[in-house]
Specification:
The protein is an alpha/beta fold and 334 residues long. The chain has two domains: 10-156, Rossmann fold (3-Layer(aba) Sandwich), CATH 3.40.50; 160-332, 3-Layer(bba) Sandwich (Glucose Oxidase, domain 1). The chain has nine helices and 18 strands. An eight-stranded mixed sheet has the order 6-18-17-10-11-12-15-9. Helix 1 (25-38) links the parallel strand 1 (10-14) and strand 2. The protein starts with 9 loop residues before the first strand and ends with a strand.
Length: 334
């Protein structure tokens, strides 16, 4: 696994799907850049970060070009947003060329799985499933935001779960800089756990992964064979999926042979948190499919769309532990 250098000074911002042209994203990006400066981070905005052509920041070709240009700069790269159709830019990403370049960290979540997942499984480059840039745009940085800034500078590689999370964000048309409304106690669900488990991390957003299965960008079986001696911890979360299609996507991954050499699963809180379908609750969808593997399963972890969140390093070795009804994840870059 190739591990890029952590963030030193220069941070490239790109918009591989949505650009920051509407509120609160535009103002939050401005505030995030101010916070970055306080942490001695110099931001370099790509040509698409403040651009929009309807449902995306630019054409597929130009979104891909912005990413490739940033990657060649060999600075830390952070996405400014998610979206819905980032998958379309993959046809214009030169993965073979990327393999010849010095590794560069790319960070983002949700739709950015299209890049975080493929860069790791195709190019053996570690990537980061973490906050998009506007997430750092609260008036006052919250603990998880500070933790992620410390993380991207290489100063923090161990994280513990939060006791509360934001189920109902406070929205304001006049204040784009609001912090989190930690209104719900987190209910960590644990299955088959006996002792700390270790394995190589891989995963992302199920909404996106479902459209990679069986395509030319699906190199998971080859990836599994390359790192089978380490075993794998799959981390997964979802956005718009309901309970029934969550289960179907998991079955599709299973049938494609993705779940091999397993050491465990770490499942983030689903955005459709209280969703059920004729008695099938969304957490049960995971348990129904994954429990047969008799490996640890942690559900409702701080990964994904319901904040606060911890960053995850695709491709890294993780040590997952539970102590006093909370969990911790420590990353080893080997």
């Amino acid at each position: 696994m190739k591990y890029p250098k952590f963030l030193n000074t220069n941070l490239n911002l790109i918009a591989p799907s949505f650009g920051c042209t509407t509120e609160p994203y535009s103002s939050r990006l401005d505030m995030a850049i101010k916070h970055f400066k306080e942490y001695n981070i110099n931001t370099i905005e790509g040509m698409n970060t403040r651009n929009s052509i309807g449902y995306r920041s630019n054409t597929n070709e130009l979104c891909a070009k912005e990413f490739m240009d940033a990657y060649k700069d060999n600075n830390f790269i952070m996405s400014v947003g998610g979206g819905n159709l980032m998958n379309e830019i993959l046809d214009y990403i030169d993965f073979d060329y990327i393999k010849t370049l010095p590794p560069t960290y790319f960070m983002g979540y949700s739709d950015n799985t299209n890049l975080t997942f493929t860069l790791t499984t195709i190019c053996d480059v570690a990537t980061i499933y973490g906050y998009n840039a506007p997430e750092f745009g609260a008036l006052k940085l919250e603990k998880s935001m500070i933790d992620q800034l410390e993380f991207i500078k290489g100063k923090k590689l161990k994280f513990s779960g939060n006791k509360k999370f934001e189920l109902n964000p406070i929205k304001s048309e006049t204040d784009p800089y609001l912090g989190y409304n930690l209104d719900t106690v987190n209910n960590l669900i644990v299955k088959n756990y006996n002792a700390p488990f270790t394995g190589r991390l891989i995963g992302g957003c199920l909404d996106i992964l479902q459209f990679l299965i069986g395509t030319k960008y699906d190199k998971v079986n080859e990836f599994n064979e390359r790192y089978k001696e380490d075993g794998f911890i799959w981390y997964l979360e979802s956005c718009d999926l309901e309970a029934w299609n969550t289960k179907l996507v998991l079955l599709q991954m299973e049938r494609a042979g993705w779940f091999k050499y397993l050491k465990g699963f770490v499942i983030g809180r689903p955005f459709n948190y209280n969703n059920d379908f004729i008695g099938l609750e969304i957490h049960q969808s995971y348990i129904d499919v994954l429990s047969k593997y008799n490996v640890p399963i942690l559900l409702n972890t701080d990964i994904g769309h319901l904040k606060p969140c911890i960053p995850v390093i695709n491709g890294a070795i993780a040590i997952v532990n539970i102590d006093n009804d909370n969990y911790s994840i420590e990353y080893q870059l080997r």
